[in-house]
Design goal:
Shape: globular
Radius of gyration: 17 Å
Number of helices: 4
Structural class: alpha/beta
Distance between the termini: 15 Å
CATH topology: Purple Acid Phosphatase, chain A, domain 2
Number of strands: 16
Helix content: 10-25%
CATH class: Alpha Beta
Length: about 220
């Protein structure tokens, strides 16, 4: 698994690109309510996604929920135009709590929608993080979104900076939100967890509290 600074993961062996929480349609939702949010935010997100597809040449795109944050609105037209650029790319969507559209809407875009979980051995892909006890070994390894994980770095002079991150612990990896028009939830570290901070084009692995029993690849380009 290759962690990418653009807040995605590339499963090299299967040629699958993983992202979570684009929240497209959120801008249109706010604009419909009279709140002037720039449309360029979502267009830039789709442009970044297009660049990743062209760079890594995945055969499949797997979206871990909250792809379209709204009922139908005009932002759907941007997705239709974007989808036409990649007609041969197989796209999966694991349904998130903000994915309110009907299944036939997704089918019209040739997007395969999965209600709760998608199994691609040896992994499981979902939107909400499952509850994993600290004293049990999970039967599978989960990748998920929903949380929008972030980490707050604190300086000795009292300054602080919040950065998006990949959060990894035994049995679970949580992806950062891909969309720019989203918040971030600061996570507290657990024993045996790993934090991979995203700072510009760099991914920075924080020192772990305890030696980790698993590995994930880093994109050092």
């Amino acid at each position: 698994m290759l962690l990418i600074p653009e807040k995605a993961i590339f499963w090299i062996e299967k040629k699958i690109l993983l992202i979570a929480d684009l929240h497209l349609g959120k801008v249109g939702h706010f604009r419909k309510s009279g709140i002037p949010i720039p449309r360029e935010l979502e267009q830039e997100d789709l442009a970044v996604l297009s660049d990743l597809i062209l760079a890594y040449q995945p055969e499949e795109l797997l979206i871990l929920g909250d792809f379209f944050h709204s009922h139908m609105n005009s932002d759907w037209n941007w997705i239709a135009l974007w989808r036409q650029q990649f007609p041969h790319l197989r796209i999966h969507l694991v349904k998130g709590n903000h994915d309110l559209l009907k299944e036939e809407d997704w089918r019209s875009m040739e997007i395969e929608m999965h209600e709760n979980i998608l199994e691609i051995p040896p992994f499981s892909f979902c939107h909400h993080p499952p509850v994993i006890s600290d004293h049990t070994i999970p039967k599978t390894y989960y990748f998920c979104g929903h949380i929008h994980p972030a980490y707050i770095l604190k300086g000795m002079a009292g300054q602080s900076k919040r950065l998006p991150c990949f959060y990894v612990e035994p049995g679970l990896a949580i992806l950062p939100s891909f969309g720019r028009f989203t918040g971030g939830h600061a996570l507290k570290r657990k024993v045996n967890s790993q934090i991979y901070l995203i700072s510009g084009q760099d991914i920075i692995k924080l020192p772990s509290k305890k030696p980790s029993q698993f590995r994930m690849g880093l994109n050092k380009e």
